[in-house]
Amino acid sequence: MNSKKKVVILTGYFKEESYGLLGPQMAATIISENSEYDAIVVAVTNEDDKMDLKTALDNHFSGTRMVIGFSTLGGRPDLFDLAGELKDKGAVTILAGPQANVDFKGEIGCESVEHRFKGLSDRFTFALHGPAQQILPILEAGFDVDLSGFDGVVYRDRSGKIKETPHTLWEDKWLSRVDWANIYRLKDKAFVPMPITCGQVLQQIGCPHAAKERKLQIDYPAGLIDDRMANETGPQSATIVQKGCSFCDVAQDKGYLGAVGEEAVKSQMKCLPKLSDGSRVNFELINESPLPKLERVMEMADQSGIELSQINLTMRADYFLKGLGTLEKTLESARQKNIRILLASIGFESFDDTILRNLNKGVTLQMNLDTIRAIRDLKPKFPYHFGYLKEEGANHGFIHPTPWDTPEISKEMNRKIVMYQLAMDILPNHSTPLIIHHASGLANWIRQMEENENIRFERVGTTIGWWQHTGFA
After folding, report:
1. Between 307 and which of 279, 391, 431, 435 could a Cys-Cys bridge form, CB atoms 3.0 to 4.6 Å apart?
2. What is the pLDDT of residues 430-441, one digit of tens each?
3. Domain architecture of the chain: domains with CATH
4. Global pTM?
């Protein structure tokens, strides 16, 4: 029996998928290669039986103390509850990933306002916010020590008060390696390895759109304005200070921290699994503004003897337009190297200027339409080496419904969808409803409305239900 100490990182996942998870898998790699612990990632879908999962965890940790990280949970209450159950039975449960600190502590003002999200400090032993290597000295010291001397931890002290220590800096040396074979799925009450068909390479931390702080006027929800106008006049917007898109909790979490060094990017590409023909699996390039450096990525692969197959890009419409001048040249190089460039997701989010303004997207309807026109013009020039279609694997951002939908806005947006045939190749099969995380910019907007209008919005786990408001009792 392997008596080495163990860590399992549980993370939310989608059924029948096989994509990699860079954050959790890189964290597991750091732990396995730099401590006396073996770490794996277990991807948990909504359909997985929690009793089977608990049985698999019992078997995996047989003879050793349970140390279980939770990362990239997607706000899933079932995983929060599981963490609480395991903690109550003596496991060390660690909340990590984006927004781990605020999810542990709870919503602003939750101590004095009864209905606000109370946080997850009762479910987790502590939270780890920031770079994954911060866990290493804690693993070495053990978990029954004073956590105040470690970087990036949020915890309850012996008096019950929540304390937080500053996190350390992101460093390239810890962003260079990832073992893509360390991810598992639950099957027959056991963990089985999961093959990866699409990895990720981190080239940029955060989003440049989140580099600058802005003061924004966000309109009240259309329904609330209608209710108020039937009785009296009053404020129709609230002011927030925001970095990045108003709904983006990751922008709030990281902001913009800049580029990862080229050597680290090369090393990450070398870690990608190989296909049967010797090329690497498709990967998502994590960079919100990738076009200026895209050709350099291919050059670095050549220099390192790495044969690439496909690069997936997730980006903003305005950054696409800014980089359009270099993209055609880059696609010429991609065709020569037989590398496919897929615009996997453009964050259009809406086709209405009022909604785009309230989301603080930093783009206009016209920018979105210009981007679509340019993409469509490129496709016939590079039919095999440039993709953006749904059937090619793309899933572009479209947020609907939102609080600002009115009959007039919906009618005009539907007209634009028909006029520009957006359903043909751009709109996803299912839109994404606006999600307001309790620590996002729009959460501040919600709290201002609650105070100004004496109303209360429903809390649903770590999110705020903007669609449901009632008067205070």
Report:
1. 279
2. 999 999 999 999
3. 5-196 (3.40.50.2300), 199-210+242-425 (3.80.30)
4. 0.94
